Amino acid sequence: MTTNLVPKNAKSTNLRTRLAAGILLLFTGLIIILLFGVNTKPGLNTTFGLTPLGDKNVIPIPDLVLPAQPAIYVLAIVAIFVGGWQLARGIKSTGLLAGVVAFCFVFAFLIWAARDNSMDLVGMMNTSVVRATPIALAALCGVISERAAVINIGLEGIMLMSAMTSVMVATLLHNLYAGLVAGMLTGMIIAGLHAILVIYFKVDQIISGVAVNIVGTGASSFISNRYMQIYTDQINNSGIFPNIPIPLLAKIPILGPVVFENNVIVYIMLILVAVTFVVLFYTRWGLRTRAVGEHPKAADTLGVRVYMTRYVNVILGGLVAGIGGAYFTIGSVGRFDKLMTAGKGFIGLAAMIFGNWNPVGALGSSMIFGFADSLQVKMQILNIPVPTEFLQMAPYLVTIIVLAGLVGKVHTPAADGLPYEKQ
Amino acid sequence: MENVSLPKPAVSENNQAGKPKEKKRNGSKLFQTLLVPVLAILTGFIIGAIVIALSNDAVIASYRNIFRDPGAALAATWSAISVAYGSLFYGSFGSVTEIFHSIQTYYSTGDSKAFLLAIYPFTESLTTVTPYILAGLAVAVGFKCGLFNIGAEGQFGIGALCSAYVGYAMHAPWYIHLPLALLAGAAGGAIWGAIPGLLKGLTGAHEVVTTIMMNYVSFRLSDWLLNGPMKASGFRPLTPVIDNSAMLPQFFPDPLRLNWGFIIALAIAFLVYWFLFKTPIGFEIRAVGANPDGARYAGMNIVKNFVLAMTISGALAGLAGAVQVLGVDHWVGQGFSSGYGFDSIAIALLGQSHPLGVVLAALLWGTLRSGATNMQLTAGVPIEIISIIQGLVIVFVAAPAVVRWIYRIRAISTQTTVLTRGWGK
Question: Per the CB < 8 Å rule, is B388 touching A219?
């Protein structure tokens, strides 16, 4: 849709937005003081472990020891300063400011949560990357298909089915890579069905996605109940991909354990993000794809094959989602349980929108989710007074807030959701 | 030379190259409207039958000998399918002969126990149908305004918790307590739906993502409430049982659970129909859904209608939760609202977002779900087969072209249903 349904009042009142943003940032700084600074007894230290215990691949560096209360106050002062600057002078890049203040808030929260205690910071960052992987793969699938203007919300169904088939094949053939290929094929087939329904039969794209979800969830639960839980040793016990440290890069102090010591699916995810970014924005094929997504009619008149491009994109997206689904079983626990994706497909969709339909943005927002996910597990261990359920709400609330704030500034592919009629 | 279009010749039926000959219209409009959904359901069941047969050990075994004894293979297949669907039918409706006999028993001896036993499956079906009607209406109202409310599950849960709270925390005579509890449920759901509606109206945030996020927030919130403030004494995370004065009256003694919730649901369906089709506000909502640009040009306030539609949608879903608590369970536990979210979307789609269609679709859906438990018990077919059938039915209903392609029906008009717009604002 190129027409703007919600007429925004022209933001000519820059003063008002500046004031609002500045006050919000100032407020955050104050909250840091009130929530975290005041509650911390002076004299306590927080230790951030920067070398994972027992990790032989990395060059060890000493832990970061911070005096808790002063550090929190410093962060609060930074936030207040940034807010005050925004109020007084105004800075162009509000995103950067929000990022800085958010960082201060989160860091202060971590310091407060682990006061008089130690926290394995690098381990938590690694867990964030690992937990972000299926979300990032789902978001990437969404990006690839939506850049050609085909909405695919059937990600849950695709990921469940490919999770199931990958563990089945991996167990039967005693080969994890075969399972991965099976997962990819499943994703491609289901996405292909969605593509046929949406492009050839011109079904509403969201309805088709919902149907794929329902059938995928039902079929995988059905087969799980009927076969997987019963014949576990024959088809539901595959083992998982081992963590493979990359020879030289794993030695780098903080980056090494976080990024370069993971299993092959995480590496594939990172490579795919880079590849998709380059292909989408720096190649002719990517340009054609984006053209089909923005203005299919113009692309058609120039000779781009609209239908073929859409089919290819949706099926490629399905391949990526298939890898994401395979992660849940052969990359994580080695067996299939029904409904094991637990909504990660939808969160991937949110990450995609949050990331502005850009592969790197999608990865960034997935990392935020992964971080929030690993944070709330850590918080449960640390026993802080906030109820765990509220911590678990954090990623979802963050998505809503950012979505509401960012949407005016994100760019949907203009023809997204509309079937194309060749004239 | 300029191309001037000549007037077309009067008779055009037979000669245009490439144009298919127009057959006589396939019956009346009602027949056409019903044909595709009916065929869709039929096709779904046929595919379901194939799945049932293929997942049955006895059938697979008999097919090993298919060339030696084809009769046995066919018999086994038929037996598997008929046992499965038979138990599904029995679970949904009971046995007609049993009901008949039990009525005779009642008239001869005055003992109603056999009668109650015989109509138990049917009343169970209607009890299951009740929340589906309301939840389906919720999504349907959203669709009518062009909004996709996936948050029905969260709104259902919040409504259930609110009404349960009024049910056990307040004490009043039933004519105050019961309406208040229902109202609390509707209000809770309304707030939960209004938030995404406001966000969509004011900032353009797409309601699919916001409602999904609100779903998860509601799950966590209910986790916390059920393990903390709203927890009944004991070990399990559930609320205390609500007062008798807040329970919806049942029609028959236990264990039959059919209650006034069913009547309320039907009444609300009629109210929604009247609201959408007979009032100016409803007209505005439908206009915004049909053509937002045109509606804005006509002076209608898009933001207000978005918020209104989402609020009503949330209220209906919350009411569904309230009716389920007050009429059937009388307390709320974890996972109370699970499954209602997607099912209500399917019901709204099947019913073409029209209240009457939603009621019929909910009747079908609830009856199937209710019977499926018996099918799992008796025939050993996992209950998820219903999900597969339902998903296929949605596809076939949403893509009439697929059904027509399978059954070679000619279309009268091109129906490309585009119910929702993309992520655009």
Answer: yes
